[in-house]
Amino acid sequence: MNNAIKIIRNEAKLEEIIKKCNICYVSMVDEGKPYIVAMNFGYKDKTLYFHSDQKGKKIDVLKKNNVVSIFFTADTEVFARHPEVACSWRMRYRSVVVNGVAEFVEDYEEKEKALLILMKNFTNEPIKFSKPAIDNVLIFKVKVQDWRGRSFEY
Q1: How many CB atoms neighbour CB 27 within 10 A?
Q2: Global pTM value
Q3: Could you report the per-residue pLDDT of 81-119, keeping only the tens digit for each?
Q4: Can you list the positions of beta strands (E) in 1-154?
Q5: CA–CA separation, 129 vs 131, rounded Å?
Q6: What is the pLDDT of residues 59-74, one digit of tens each?
Q7: Fold classified for 5-147
Q8: Among residues 79, 96, 89, 85, which one has the least CA distance to residue 43?
């Protein structure tokens, strides 16, 4: 493997990368074909939380096959070792891939907790949700079954 590429196994470093991200890419399989969506998320205690409309393609796919792989990338930066040499241009990055199983959250209090965790990614302001907002949103969570990270040029 290239010396510029480093494998990340340390859980604290994996979490650090995830916490730097505003969105991630959730991949799933739809009748034998790959399907991927960009989503915002919340993260706490090796669990990812997602919110969605009650209906839509991703929900239909997850109801049929709830195995997912989730990709995060942070600290991206284009640079050149020698600006006049095309092949010396590179992209620094840190990334994490999480594998797990999506579980739909039905419990009202757990849904509210998930939404609060999700909002922590965007603000430290106090947040309140109305009962209709919580009742009408679909929440699913993915507990980390396995994860791995990688960095390039860091």
Answers
A1: 16
A2: 0.91
A3: 888 888 888 889 999 999 999 999 999 999 999 999 999
A4: 5-8, 23-30, 33-40, 42-44, 47-52, 67-80, 89-105, 138-143, 146-152
A5: 7
A6: 999 999 999 999 999 9
A7: Pnp Oxidase; Chain A (2.30.110)
A8: 96
